[in-house]
Amino acid sequence: MVSFGEALRAARKTAGYGLQAFADELGIDRSSVSRWQRGKHFPEPYYAEKIRALTGLDVESFRQRGVVVTRDELAEGLASLAVRVDQLAAGHEELEAAVARLEQRGAGQVPPG
User: Fold this and answer.
1) Mean pLDDT in consecutive groups of 10 residues from the start of the chain, 113 residues
2) In this predicted model, what pLDDT tens digit does every residue of 53-73 receive, in sequence order?
3) Contacts of 5 (CB under 8 A, 6+ apart)
């Protein structure tokens, strides 16, 4: 399956745009287009519409099919997941400590309070 970056590069060239000319038409710097083509970022909806108008490429169809997950999006998702796992682990430890206190209290080992 063709990646978004590959499809964008092919559509841009087919439409007759060099990298700089395409970036100029979009009103952005060429490094942004380069990042899209390398799969590091994905264009915002505003630029997706402009790309479609210039090349005919349906940018959003890539996102809808789940084909597009940029490296940055993946890294952000993994970082969020790691934070959530840490939160759950801390909550689990607190719960275990509370259960232990209740068990000790029930066995008469720890006075209430």
Assistant:
1) 87 96 96 92 91 93 66 75 88 88 77 57
2) 999 999 888 877 765 555 666
3) 36, 37, 38, 39
How many CA atoms lie within 13 Å of 29's alpha carbon, on the beta-carbon side? 3
Listed by start position, the domains of the chain span 4-64, 71-113
Overall pTM > 0.70:
no
How many whole angstroms separate alpha carbon 103 and alpha carbon 96? 10
With beta carbons less than 8 A apart as the criterion, state whether 17 and 54 touch: yes
Radius of gyration of the chain (CA): 25
Residue 8 has phi, psi (to 5 degrees) of: -65, -45
- pLDDT confidence of residue 62: 80
Q: Does domain 4-64 have CATH number 1.10.260.40?
A: yes
